[in-house]
Amino acid sequence: MKEAFGGFSLFNIVIVFVLLFAGYISMSINYSKAYNVKNEILNIIKNQGGVCTSQTPDAFKCFNFSEQISDYFKEANYRSTGVCNSDDETGWVGYNREGLLDNQNPAFCVKAIRANSNSELPNALYYQVKVFYQLDLPVIRNLFEFSIYGETARIYEPNECDVDKGGDPNSYPWCSGV
């Protein structure tokens, strides 16, 4: 009887270590995928010169941003979602997998931060991006949700976008509108 009980205890210990190992591998894979998604979103924002802030994709900038995000998410098979604005964080705008505004169930969040410069240089923005990933255990499924943050370098606005310098941002499609 002692040997049967000892075998059962050893079996439980092995199962626990297998679950821990599977959780670690799962977390590593999800983190790696979220990190790559974050970097690609930052590259798209940098190449576009900002983020489209209107929900109607009539401007070329909005359409191109949505199209690039949608294409990348289809290729990356990224499915995690999260919450943009928690109690201690505000100003985040959520986007779904198609690159359209969605604060209910966003795949990633973007926050535009104005970095004013002296009067000789145009104003600049930089964007922070928040991407979600989770700890998925094989049997238990979603256990914890985590976020990865990243930010772009400064993106300078042309003077046409700066109201203080006589510009009209509503007249130019490349103005960020932030």
Structure explained in plain terms:
With 178 residues, the chain is of the alpha+beta class. The chain has one domain (2-171). Helix content is 36%, strand content 21%. The protein has two helices and five strands, in the order ααβββββ. Strands 1, 2, 3, 4 and 5 form a five-stranded antiparallel sheet that branches. Helix 1 runs antiparallel to helix 2 (60-76). The mean pLDDT is 76.
Keywords:
21% strand, elongated, 5-stranded antiparallel beta sheet, alpha+beta, 5 strands, 178 residues, 2 helices
* Content-based structural category: alpha+beta
Please report which band the strand proportion falls in: under 5%, 5-15%, 15-25%, 25-35%, 35-45% or over 45%.
15-25%
**Low-confidence residue ranges:** none
Biggest sheet architecture: 5 strands, antiparallel
Query: What's the structural domain tally?
Result: 1
**Shape from CA axes?**
elongated
